[in-house]
């Protein structure tokens, strides 16, 4: 529960508010509440209401703080954003997603997200269900290799999977550092380069939390609840996540049709969105203050 006290820096906050454009009396959904950075900024930007979603039970303390501060303007609903349509049956003016593990989860060693801190191999955002430890100790060699390759395109996935299976013949893999050391036997650390354990750990985290399927479901659920002119804003950090967001907006943005050379292109009537943004990335000033924002990408779309 101590994790709820760790302060998370919301990434691309200025750009998120600019894309969402919160207004008085409107309803917005923070689909990835975490430590409430986006929620608080939206509530401070306009006299609106925010419905916050999160599957992590550790955020309850922060949600209660927000309720005390903002009263009826804030409502927390426990659940996974993949179930957006069920959690949010009402129509809304906008929604924002911050995809991936939050700083408060990553910095809490007990959650097992980081190979830099020894802890049980967990990685469950909901603190329930199959863990990363369950996967590395029960999956077959081919299953492990396919998982690592599919979720992060690690070109040493076969060798890493083989080492994992070889190691667990003698001892169960129990901790984050234990798994990292197995990976280092395949890919040696190099000064100034990304840690070799990064790809495998992120692949396991994505698999444990079924993040890609949940993202797809969450986007379509949010779009179904937006009113005309409602805005869907997504910040992601991973190429696979970004591909899903980009393709979803593209596929639902509609092909452009030209009425005349003097008129602006119009989207086909069967499209979900009337406007889809170009990709936005963090400003240099933000990167200097928060290096974790370096891989962030923001996209947004406006409902027809």
What does this structure look like?
The protein is an alpha/beta fold and 304 residues long. It has two domains: 2-104 and 211-303, 3-Layer(aba) Sandwich (Rossmann fold), CATH 3.40.50.150; 129-208, Putative methyltransferase TM0872, insert domain (DNA polymerase, domain 1). The chain has helices at residues 13-20, 37-45, 60-70, 84-87, 103-107, 132-138, 141-152, 157-168, 176-184, 198-208, 211-225, 239-252, 284-289, and strands at residues 27-30, 49-54, 74-78, 92-98, 226-236, 256-257, 266-267, 273-276, 297-303. The strands form two sheets. A seven-stranded mixed sheet has the order 3-2-1-4-5-9-8, with helices on both faces. Strand 1, helix 2 and strand 2 form a beta-alpha-beta unit. Helix 7 (141-152) runs antiparallel to helix 8 (157-168), helix 7 packs across helix 10 and helix 11 packs parallel to helix 12 (239-252). The longest helix is centred in the C-terminal third of the chain and has 15 residues, at 211-225. It is elongated. The relative contact order is 0.14.
The number of distinct helices, counting runs of at least 4 residues, comes to 13
Kindly report the average pLDDT value. 88
Which CATH architecture of the largest domain is right?
3-Layer(aba) Sandwich
Strands ordered across the widest β-sheet: 3-2-1-4-5-9-8
* Tally of individual domains: 2
Main β-sheet description: 7 strands, mixed
The CATH topology annotation of the largest domain reads as: Rossmann fold
Spatial gap, N to C terminus: 42 Å
Give a count of the beta strands, DSSP E runs of length 2 or more: 9
Helix coverage percent: 40-55%
Overall geometry comes to elongated
Radius of gyration: 21 Å
């Amino acid at each position: 529960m101590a994790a709820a006290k760790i302060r998370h820096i919301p990434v691309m906050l200025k750009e998120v508010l600019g894309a969402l454009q919160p207004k008085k009396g409107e309803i917005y959904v923070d689909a990835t509440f975490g430590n409430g950075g986006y929620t608080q900024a939206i509530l401070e930007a306009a006299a609106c209401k925010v419905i916050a979603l999160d599957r992590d039970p550790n955020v309850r303390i922060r949600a209660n703080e927000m309720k005390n501060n903002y009263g009826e303007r804030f409502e927390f609903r426990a659940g996974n954003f993949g179930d957006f349509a069920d959690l949010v049956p009402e129509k809304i003016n906008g929604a924002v997603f911050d995809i991936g593990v939050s700083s408060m989860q990553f910095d809490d060693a007990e959650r097992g997200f980081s190979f830099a801190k020894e802890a049980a191999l967990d990685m469950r955002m909901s603190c329930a269900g199959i863990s990363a430890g369950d996967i590395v100790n029960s999956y077959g060699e081919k299953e492990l290799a396919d998982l690592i390759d599919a979720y992060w395109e690690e070109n040493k996935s076969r060798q890493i999977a083989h080492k994992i299976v070889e190691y667990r013949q003698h001892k169960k893999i129990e901790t984050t550092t234990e798994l990292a050391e197995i990976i280092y036997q395949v890919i040696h650390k190099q000064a100034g380069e990304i840690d070799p354990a990064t790809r495998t750990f992120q692949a396991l985290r994505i698999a444990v939390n079924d993040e890609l399927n949940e993202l797809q479901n969450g986007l379509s659920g949010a779009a179904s609840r937006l009113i005309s002119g409602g805005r869907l804003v997504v910040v992601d950090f991973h190429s696979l996540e970004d591909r899903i967001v980009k393709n979803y907006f593209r596929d639902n943005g509609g092909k452009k049709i030209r009425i005349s050379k003097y008129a602006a292109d119009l989207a086909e009537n069967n499209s979900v969105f009337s406007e889809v943004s170009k990709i936005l990335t963090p400003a240099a000033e933000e990167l200097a203050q928060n290096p974790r924002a370096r891989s962030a990408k923001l996209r947004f779309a406006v409902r027809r």
